[in-house]
# Entry
Amino acid sequence: MLSEKTLQALNKQIALEGNASASYLAMASWCERQGLNGCATFFYDQSAEERMHMMKIIHYVNEMDGHAVISEQEKPKGEYNSVQELFKAVYQQEKSVTSAIYELLSISDEESDHSTTLFLQWYVAEQREEEAQIRTILDKIKLIGTGGQSLYFIDQEVQNINAQRGQEEAGGEEGVA
Ligand code: OFO
# Structure
């Protein structure tokens, strides 16, 4: 059974993950329009991941006899001036999701809600990985710079990350089978 305070915080997190999913979808579409296919794939995948994060919380809340609320989604930003600006926005977004997860953990700790604390551990690890990945991309963008073919090389780097991610996921699935 979830306390009212925890339930409210989890429902807020459902909305946050849903907004993150929509925001990545809008970014994917922007990248696709710019011909940045590696970045577009990255964000389409990321959007699906955030939806999965949202679904996990919905199932958890309902399993705990709570009522998962699906609220109205914010309209995501659809235009960017550059790929640099876009990845900086992603980093800020992920940092605010991490803060929200930490806040949720403070509530579950305060209430000795061990089940929710355990459930949230997965999100802590996930956020650490996601933030590290975006920092890597930002570092590469800085190294590549803004010269003539920089967009091509940035997109290639992100495409390499997609391939790496695909391999890791395939490895994970094999491990599960
Ligand atoms: Fe990366 O936002 Fe979900 O947890």
In short: The pocket of hydroxy diiron-OXO moiety is lined by residues 17, 20, 50, 53, 94, 97, 123, 126-127, 130 (CB under 6 Å). The mean pLDDT is 94.
